[in-house]
Write a structure and sequence with these properties.
The structure holds three protein chains of three kinds. Chain A contains seven helices and five strands, in the order H-H-E-H-E-E-H-E-H-E-H-H. The longest helix of chain A has 17 residues. The two termini of chain A are 35 Å apart.
């Protein structure tokens, strides 16, 4: 609805090429930001909270978010839970299988820096950013569904503020 | 029954096409409920062999616990079984209390039972939701999570956490329940019976559901015992064994409840046992709320808690079967060794036994009905 | 119904000299067995029609710094009786007979102890990487003096 009501206002300025280019950017970014489909991937406790966020009370669908079982169809990956050294290469593979542009939310202490499993353990990766780039860090053990929603809003802000030139430059690179 | 006949008569095709191939399932697969990896040897759609690979969530909780004090261990043990954290805390505290000879006060025991049984309901609701999701029904998932949120509210007002509670402590519980807990819990208990009727109305007699579950993934009595199955999986195979009654702990001998068992041990039996357990747990919560005594909630335990040297194995009936904790104390403030045992560990081990000869679509139903969660397997 | 004393006596009488009753704190049914006799003991426990101790609760390895202790917690579903069996093996290159062909549930427990403590189970068909990554080459991490490059101790806080 937002797009449809705002679009004519932006397009009023049309006689000037640049204005059209920026508003196209706005259209593209808004549509990308409001249909982030996430990969159904969870390893530990955070996955249960992610499930709750997708279910009756918290209802991810409001943000146009819906789970996809295959990384090929997903734009967003929640790294929900502890990532062990054994799992890390698989997470990297999953990330690489996703189509660009792709985003990652590190959900929970374990994904941010190892969390409660940082010390005295031989098996846990100390932060998922050692393997894949992260867009939003979400602390908590596990974070509540509300904070997961907040993280998604933050990510939407980020997506909306992206520049088209940079995006296409990334594509060419 | 058309589906069962189809399974028996499914034609493997001409002999020259009968070629075995391998399929990798997991670690990221929507129906493996976490990070289990199965290497399947297939012939057409039939499974010749299945090999589970685990360890993708191995976090070395046992190793960390050796370097933490008893109080610091409890939050870690929460994460060993996050769907029923209360049970994980209970089994650790039970083992520690046995070593240290601590007696839990009456009100503490009642609060523990209320929380444990509410947590069992919450866990079975997760099972019911994801199980039906795996079979293609989304509505029960939304229904189940709706009721689960009410339980989460109760936990949250008690201890401030939704999932990993750190509520049950050595000698009792950390906090008393707030005033509004009892009325809300009573309201939940009263409505929940009817909610279970709703779930059953959608699933139990549904022809599609029956076709997917009846006579699928049979675990017979002997296999279940030999492979160390426990909890609902063991009971669905017709073994009348429940640690709440057969190796009593806490105050479960004061409540009236039935222990449901199945007959065949197929997916439908396992589903049915859990649905009946939902009702029984609800009854236990009702009785515990009615008889909740006044008094202390926690025994006096010193801040610098050092149990005497000794070792004890405690086991409780969790939603996923026997959950055990073996603790060795050397007299210091840290446990010398903590060994955790979850029902899922042995159920995952059993998968090749059940999967051989099945069709791959039935494996999804079978695996979901075992209700395995991976942290219990990998620790 | 089997009571605890006759139960322990039945076992110790069957294996004089190699199985002895243990007095543990807190009290529990416990026996100590020499590593060579583990297989025979379990054969007896499972096959004896009066005992039918055939259900494994857990098998744990314990690093006692001079040797590795292996603790079996088993029980009988019919007789509702529990038993703790303890045995010890050498710390480096310890060997013990596998019981996974007598009770299949022991398979993964033994595999785990093999991987994390380095105890070799004779007759076990599948001693391969289990919980650790496939390319793991840093030894047996559950040993108490184990150390690795990625292993950070928690700093002491007063």
């Amino acid at each position: 609805m937002g797009v449809i009501s705002k679009l004519p206002l932006v397009l009023q300025n049309v006689p000037g090429g640049t204005v059209v280019a920026t508003s196209l950017e706005k259209v593209l970014n808004t549509s990308r930001a409001s249909s982030l489909w996430y990969l159904l991937f969870g390893t530990a406790c955070c996955a249960i909270e992610m499930m709750c966020a997708g279910a009756s009370r918290y209802d991810f669908d409001r943000f146009g978010m819906f789970f996809r079982a295959s990384p090929r169809q997903a734009d967003l990956m929640f790294v929900a839970g502890t990532i062990s050294h054994k799992m890390a290469p698989r997470v990297k593979l999953l990330y690489e299988q996703m189509a660009e542009p792709r985003y990652v939310i590190a959900m929970g202490g374990c994904a941010c820096n190892g969390g409660p499993f940082h010390y005295d353990t031989y098996a846990v990766l100390k932060g998922i950013d050692k393997v894949i780039p992260v867009d939003v860090y979400l602390p908590g053990c596990p974070p509540r569904p509300e904070s997961l929603l907040e993280a998604c809003l933050k990510l939407q802000e980020k997506v909306k503020s992206e520049k088209l030139e940079k995006w296409s430059a990334d594509q060419r690179a | 029954m058309a589906a069962a006949e189809f399974r028996k008569t499914a034609d493997p095709g001409p002999a020259e096409y009968n070629e075995e191939f391998e399929v990798n399932m997991g670690p990221q697969h929507p129906s493996t409920h976490g990070v289990l990896r199965l290497k399947l040897k297939m012939n057409g759609e039939h499974i010749v062999d299945a090999v589970p690979y685990i360890g993708y969530l191995h976090r070395a909780i046992e190793k960390i616990c050796e370097n933490r004090t008893y109080a610091q261990c409890i939050p870690l043990i929460d994460r060993f079984e996050y769907v029923t954290s209360m049970a994980a805390e209970e089994v650790f505290c039970l083992a520690t209390e046995r070593v240290a000879g601590v007696e839990v006060p009456e009100r503490g025991e009642y609060l523990r039972v209320i929380m444990l049984e509410l947590n069992r309901i919450a866990s079975h609701l997760i099972f019911l939701g994801t199980f039906s999701l795996d079979l293609g029904a989304i509505t029960p998932f939304l229904y189940c999570l709706r009721e689960r949120e009410q339980i989460m509210d109760l936990f949250e007002m008690t201890c401030g956490q939704r999932l990993t509670y750190n509520y049950i402590r050595v000698g009792g519980v950390s906090k008393d329940i707030p005033e509004e807990f009892i009325p809300l819990a009573r309201k939940f208990v009263d409505t929940f019976q009817h909610r279970v009727d709703d779930y059953e109305a959608i699933l139990t007699e549904n022809p599609i559901f029956l076709a997917r579950t009846k006579d699928v993934g049979i675990v017979n009595r002997e296999t279940a015992v030999r492979w160390g199955a426990s909890g609902p999986v063991l009971r669905a195979s017709g073994v009348d064994w429940d640690l709440r009654r057969d190796d009593p702990y806490s105050i479960y001998d004061r409540f009236n409840y039935e222990i449901p068992t199945g007959t065949v041990g197929d997916v439908w039996d396992r589903y049915m046992v859990r649905v009946k357990e939902l009702r029984q747990s609800n009854e236990i919560v009702r009785q515990a709320i009615d008889n909740l005594p006044e008094g202390e909630i926690r025994a006096k335990v010193k801040g610098n808690f050092k149990p005497p040297a000794g070792d004890a194995y405690a086991r409780i009936e969790n939603a996923r079967g026997e959950m055990g904790c073996y603790i060795i104390s050397d007299g210091s403030d840290k446990p010398y060794r903590v060994k955790l045992r979850g029902g899922s560990f042995l159920h995952t081990q059993m998968i090749p036994e059940i999967a051989r000869g099945q069709m791959i679509a039935d494996l999804v139903a079978t695996f979901a009905s075992l209700d395995v969660i991976l942290p219990e397997v990998d620790r | 119904m089997l009571d605890n004393e006759t139960f322990i006596k039945t076992i110790t009488d069957q294996f004089p000299g190699s199985v002895e009753a243990l007095e543990l704190q807190p009290p529990q049914n416990a026996v100590k067995v020499s590593a060579e006799k583990v297989r025979e003991l379990f054969q007896f426990l499972v096959e004896n029609p009066d005992l039918k101790v055939n259900y494994i609760s857990s098998i744990s390895g314990v690093d006692k710094t001079d040797q590795i202790e292996i603790v079996y917690h088993i029980c009988s579903l019919e007789n509702k009786i529990k038993l703790t069996v303890k045995t010890t093996v050498e710390r480096s290159g310890g060997k013990i007979d596998s019981i996974q062909d007598i009770i299949p549930a022991a398979n993964w427990f033994e595999r785990e102890i093999w991987e994390l403590y380095g105890v070799d189970f004779n007759g076990h068909p599948n001693l391969t990487r289990f919980l650790l990554p496939d390319d793991w080459d840093q030894g047996n991490p559950m040993l108490r003096d184990w150390d690795g490059p990625d292993f950070v101790r928690m700093p002491e806080v007063n």
